Amino acid sequence: MNGEKTSSPARRVWRRFLRNPVALVALVVIAFYVLMAVSTGLGTLLGVHFPMDPNATNLSDKLQPPSLNHWLGTDNLGRDVLSRLLNGSYISLSVGFVAMTVSLLIGVMVGAVSGYFGGWLDNILMRLVDAILCFPSFFLILTAVALLGPDIRIIILVIGFVGWTGTARLVRAEFLTLRETEYVRAARALGQRAFPIIFRHILPNAFAPIFVTAVVGIPDAILIEAGLSFISLGVQPPQATWGNIINDGRTYLLDAWWLIVFPGVAIFTAALAFYLAGDALRAAATTRQERK
Length: 292
Known about the structure:
Number of helices: 13
CATH architecture: Orthogonal Bundle
Structural class: mainly alpha
Largest sheet: none
Mean pLDDT: 88
Strand content: under 5%
Number of strands: 0
Number of domains: 1
Order of helices and strands: HHHHHHHHHHHHH
Radius of gyration: 22 Å
């Protein structure tokens, strides 16, 4: 107990997080998918494919069920489903992490400025957030991608630019509380300017809820990308993603169940792991705040 009291707040939150068995399982699943995506991405850059080239077609082997030659079967063009699933993990997780980073940067900046300065600037920024929230985010993304084209860079930027509103409101709420604390008042009394106070004093103390938002934002982006790819507005073939693998297999649902089940399980388990990790992290951070 004494060791926990003397450690930093972030370390105490991390220790409580690791004591949660559900969080540990979620962390293992996330680590597995991240390792799979990173190794596949590096292999693609080096021209090495496991177990085979995901875009190599062989019509004589089309729609083969799982076997020793093709562990997860083949699709309608004879492509190895396991290879495409591994390649799709790199694309889907890349979209999730990068889009989350974009939305996090925008949301933190807008929320920090709105919560710290308040007044008319706060009113303008929060009305902008309310205006964006009036429209379903998926349909905004769908419209933007339909107009700009289904390029992976456009998809990442559009998801990031649409998904920052929740982060902005959360950061604003944290800043409204923290800007009235004694150490912030002392920093103002010493003549420090606004942005050094924001980044040095307030933002580090609001890190826990921001990090929770980031963890939960990753599966949201993965699911949006999968939905876009499923309706052929996401990453375009022959590049594999979990969403367009399911799209390719929906015509053969009764004859080739593996084209739907395996990428569906990948999407479900990856998203669930991130959501469970975010929920456990939120519980650990809330416990820390309640003990203050």
